[in-house]
Design goal:
about 150 residues; four-stranded antiparallel β-sheet; binds adenosine-5'-diphosphate; Alpha-Beta Plaits
Length: about 150
């Protein structure tokens, strides 16, 4: 099954939304395969946000990501990257649809609660950036047959 990276950002930590956000992924039926708290360094952020390095808000985003530790998570499921992106909503919290995490909890383009990999390909790269191999744990959810039909798994 596919795995994807989620980061609970400082805006999530400060606003005491960690449990709420984790609960949404759990209730959807995703499996938590890894989770730890980290203080992000400049170098990991330069790599993670390399696609934004020419944007005027690059330094602000990096600074904001270092204001508290973050929680990095690996979630697993069929099409996990797509499923998680649909649960979090579009980047700008003011434009994100109600019912999504950003739509329900953010009014900002920057302070938007969570990061999630934008594709299965990015997820593979990003999971390696934040997790060691032995920090991703394999176990079977006993409710798997209620989450998916037999021909899906
Ligand atoms: P996403 O997080 O939805 O994949 P991007 O990769 O484009 O979006 O941007 C990474 C992060 O940079 C966003 O989650 C947000 O915190 C910040 N960001 C993006 N666009 C803006 C913007 N216009 N102004 C301020 N911060 C932004």
């Amino acid at each position: 099954m596919e795995k994807t990276l989620v980061i609970l950002k400082p805006s999530c930590v400060q606003r005491a939304l960690m449990g709420e956000v984790i609960s949404r992924f759990e209730k959807k039926g995703l499996r938590l395969a890894g989770m730890k708290m980290m203080q992000l360094s400049d170098s990991i952020l330069n790599e993670h946000y390399a696609h934004l390095k020419d944007k005027p808000f690059f330094d602000h985003v990096k600074k904001s990501m270092q204001t508290t530790p973050v929680v990095v998570q690996c979630w697993e499921g069929i099409d996990a990257a797509k499923v998680v992106r649909s649960l979090i909503g579009v980047t700008n919290g003011r434009q994100a649809a109600a019912g999504t995490i950003r739509g329900d909890f953010s009014v900002s383009a920057q302070e938007n609660i969570v990061h999630a990999s934008d594709s299965a390909e990015s997820a593979e790269i990003e999971l390696k950036r934040f997790f060691k191999k032995d920090e991703i744990l394999e176990y079977k959810l006993s409710i798997l047959n209620s989450l998916y039909s037999g021909d899906e798994i």
